[in-house]
Design brief:
This protein has helices spanning 16-26, 55-58, 77-80, 83-103, 124-137, 161-170, 182-193, 205-211; strands at residues 7-11, 33-35, 48-49, 68-71, 108-112, 143-148, 152-153, 180-181, 199-204. It is of the alpha/beta class. The radius of gyration is 16 Å and the shape is globular.
Length: 213
């Protein structure tokens, strides 16, 4: 079953995937409002509302109707500066955003996780992603879509050395571990927003690539 959401809440609009998704959303004729809070100002658009500042401050202040919420928040331990700071973004902030979106009436949450997300993983990054997934599941969303992309490929404003090295190699790996272009991921996320079904759906990277073609 397909629906046509017209009021969107988007977190992470300044990131690689979020920026591409925002551009797509603002060019969809059926969308009348995109609420995209961010730390840095976004380019103005007639259908864009862009509260700027500290998420801890503006999250409770967000208001208005929301049909679908996208969460593209994410960082790296290197960028965050410590494991605790990484968890504050990739778990705490994601969960807080999802909670606020639910309070605003969103029925469907689409959240970016990562390949290998696992509560019991010995890898800190994967374990935090698994904990985040468990926390948003506990919010009892009518519809929850968890996207688990593999290595993201694309031009970042601030390039990540590990991705620059691993990116070409990831294109040679088959199946869900094959690298995924950020533009493909953004297309896939929008298409997932058009699908209506109850419960939780986990989409691995190989399926995301097919959806994003």
């Amino acid at each position: 079953m397909h629906l046509t959401p017209s009021h969107i809440l988007l977190a992470g609009a300044t990131g690689l995937t979020g920026e591409l998704l925002l551009d797509r959303l603002l060019n969809e004729p059926t969308i009348t409002r995109v609420l995209a809070p961010s730390r840095k100002p976004l380019a103005e658009h007639p259908h864009l509302e862009n509260p700027v500042g500290d998420p801890a401050v503006f999250l409770p202040q967000l208001s208005g109707r929301v049909d679908v919420a996208f969460c593209c928040l994410g960082t790296t331990i290197k960028q965050a500066g410590s494991e605790a700071a990484f968890r504050a973004v990739d778990h705490d902030m994601v969960v807080a955003f999802a909670k606020r979106a639910r309070e605003m009436g969103a029925r469907h949450l689409i959240v970016l996780s990562a390949i290998g997300a696992d509560l019991k993983s010995s890898v800190f990054y994967n374990r935090v992603k698994g904990e985040m997934e468990q926390s948003v599941r506990a919010q009892n969303w009518p519809q929850l879509t968890i996207a688990r992309p593999s290595l993201l490929l694309g031009d970042r404003v601030e390039p990540r050395l590990a991705e620059q090295i691993a990116g070409p190699l990831s294109k040679l790996i088959p199946g869900k571990y094959h690298g995924i272009e950020a533009c493909q991921l953004a297309r896939a996320l929008w298409r997932l927003a058009l699908e209506e079904q109850d419960g939780v759906r986990v989409i691995e990277s190989d399926e995301l690539r097919k959806l994003g073609k």
